[in-house]
Amino acid sequence: MDKSNMSINPQLCTGCACCQLSCSYAYTGVFNPAKARIVPEASVSIVFTADCIPNCSICARYCAQGAIKQLEKVSV
Amino acid sequence: MDYYGYAGKTLYIDLESRSTKVVPLDLDDARKFVGGAGLTSKIAFDLIKPGASPLSPENPIILGVGPLVGTMVPTACKTNLTMKFPGPASRSENKYVVDISVAGGKRFGLMLKNAGYDTVVISGRAKKPSYLKIVDDDVQVCDAADLWGKKDIFETTDELSSRHKGPKGKAGVMAIGKAGETLVNGAIAFVDNMSTIGTFGGAVFGSKNLKAVVTLGSKGVKVADGKKLMALAEKLRQEIITHPGFGKGRPAGYLRSTSAGYPDDLTSRTKVGRVACASCPDPCKADHEIKDGKFTGTKLLDCRAHYAFYHGRRLRLDEYGEILMLFDLATRNGLDMFTAVRMLHFVSRLYERGIISSKDTGGLEIKRGDFDSYRKLLEQYINRQHIGEYMAQGWYALSDRVGVDAASDWMDGASIVRNFDTITDARFDGFDPGHGLAAILRPRGQLLLQDTMYPAGEDIHKETYFPEWKRSLNDVKRDYIEMGAPPEEMDRIFSKNGFNAGRLEKHAEDAYAVYDCLGVCSEGGRTTWEPVRNVPLLAEMYPAATGIDITTRELKKRGERVWNLQKLLNVREGFTRKDDEVPALWLTNTETPLKLKGGDKYLVDWFGRRVCTADIQQMLDDYYDERGWDINKGTPTRQKLVEMGLERYEV
Description:
Structural class of chain B: alpha+beta
CATH class of the largest domain in chain B: Alpha Beta
Radius of gyration of chain A: 11 Å
Number of domains of chain A: 1
Radius of gyration of chain B: 23 Å
Number of helices of chain B: 25
Number of strands of chain B: 23
Strand order of the largest sheet of chain A: 1-4
Strand order of the largest sheet of chain B: 2-1-6-3-4-5
Structural class of chain A: alpha+beta
Strand content of chain B: 5-15%
CATH superfamily of the largest domain in chain B: Aldehyde ferredoxin oxidoreductase, N-terminal domain
Number of domains of chain B: 3
Distance between the termini of chain B: 34 Å
CATH topology of chain A: Alpha-Beta Plaits
CATH architecture of chain A: 2-Layer Sandwich
CATH class of chain A: Alpha Beta
Shape of chain A: globular
CATH architecture of the largest domain in chain B: 4-Layer Sandwich
Largest sheet of chain A: 2 strands, antiparallel
Number of strands of chain A: 4
Oligomer: heterodimer
Order of helices and strands of chain A: EHEEHE
Helix content of chain A: 10-25%
């Protein structure tokens, strides 16, 4: 998924999984990292899945470390 | 049946037969004991056989995650562990404590809940080294031949978290090291390479041939009123991330004041990455890298660098990298790092004093301040060789062997309660409720976090000392209210210029049980301010998560019930007030001062007033009176059990 509206820095990720918890809750109504559309691995990578929604920035909203930041909305 | 907040299942595994059983959660039990530590305690009461050896197959390991675990509630990630701990916890009797241990973690508790279980009971003994895999409904006892005796905790965790990785992340892992495998008394288990659990209990895992437990789940956590829970979680999250203390990490505090000649900025200087538990926006854990000296460039996981000052100085180590390396060696081998370095200090001083010789150490000549000596002695401890065999049997056995009682050896001993060395030493930290009374009252001599653990400011009537690392009386009063304690009874606990330590301790314990039952952090992500340690707020979150209505007062009462039940588990093993051992070194310090640079230091309370033995006994009297227990026996009365609805648990 192209998430060019997001700035990603895995080095700042602490592994708290708030991105996965908030994403899964927003789209399924259940807290379930396995249903999240983002896969963070602290210090290694932060990957968006193919079904991630363009312009959605819920994960950035709940990232307290600034590892995921929203830059701007992209037109789709 | 639909469960909210709870996963709704208890998993039973017998390691010997490799059989598993899944039992639906009884919601009446959940209402009565909340969850987490409450449910593990209830199951412990039903399953632990009084008098049975902690290292026998009959001693179950009971893991639990509370109803807030797996949600967005900040810090709701905790795993509880209830079992009987090796000791023995008495010099004269063969008896052992049952205790609750708790740990954070980035994946373990979160994934256990997502696999669909609130509680896991592991019993029996595997025929050969094994690990337990819990991946949703796929529960298996797996062969650990490639791990046992071959891989340390960090390597085991890396291996298993990757081996059982899911599409959206790694598995959670709770593992032991070599010290657990060799049944060393001071062994620990470690969660997700970041949190200790079951300190002094790693040997129970070892006795079961259980190297690790792995969790991964995809079932999710449903809550009753998601909108409300998210709003409450967000309120708390905002409080945390907008606080002036956000992002500051753990303070070095008093630990820095005992200068070892190390850089004052040691903690920040070596920190290379912060590590959070699941759902915690402000992590207190960190990975470090040694920046100076002969170990420059060595990276260390969760080495708790802020403890380097005190312990490094005590061992006379020139470089801070050396004490950090000893911490690391202890942890990766599954040994409690505090107990390890205290043992190293005690034994190396015995050698220096001529009480033991190289005959006792297999020819090893111990030089104080010499890293290599300590490293080799630590290896003897972990491998149970020479003097290490007695170190591995615990403080009482070691003391008997060398003819010097570590518990009362003024210069070189340790603060010991029931064979467990306390995390901190009230001679230095003060005999406040959290450091002092808690160590006497909690089964393994652990701390109990509350505001009085921070030093009193110069003016206790000041409104607040924040952001300084001090507390005013107002702060302690606010803490009391946030324990969920009754405001109308405040006058009984507090006076104009102070508080009754014994009575305050009771309420702090009840609140602590609430945190452990729900699965939130008692540090609240911080050691300097604790937004999550707030029973009134949690009393709003619990119904939003579970659909079970509750008031602050009722939730606090549930905590009290669980604390009573935990006491009964130990009363049943033969523990009474006679076992409320006050560390001998603290008693000595009531009359004999420490000779410090700033002058003589006697044992003092939170207010800095000298404490005598009678004062401590009075605090215990007040504590038992506040609990409504028998003051002389120190055990719950029948009347109290009726009030708590615990009649069936009467011992």
